[in-house]
Amino acid sequence: MYGGGDFMFQAVPIFIGIIFVIIISFILFSAIKGITQWSQNNQSPNLTVRAKVLGKRTAVRGGGETRAYSRYFITFEVESGDRMELQVKETDYGMLVEGDEGELTFQGTRYLGFERQAYEIES
Fold this sequence. Notes:
Elements: H1 5-43, E1 46-61, E2 69-78, E3 83-88, H2 90-95, E4 101-107, E5 110-116
Antiparallel strand pairs: 1-2, 1-4, 2-3, 4-5
């Protein structure tokens, strides 16, 4: 009898198993990375430093056949000259403008707030 079909019945389950392992590994890696970052943020102190808003950007995920999600990021420059990009809420993103200066409060990579400095008008 013709034995060519045996290879497909052996190879396809192995291929599907490999794909399944890759997907599960990716999901576990992402979950562990997120939990590790969350834990590091919780162990970091709350810091408030003078900072300036240098830039803003958005990252859109999804769209097309699925719902689109936007994430909002602001780049700050602190007194020491270091720059950090923090994810912020949509409302904070809309309220801050490049060039704003004030007090940035953060914990690790977690944005907690920004209090804009009041400007004095020169006469």
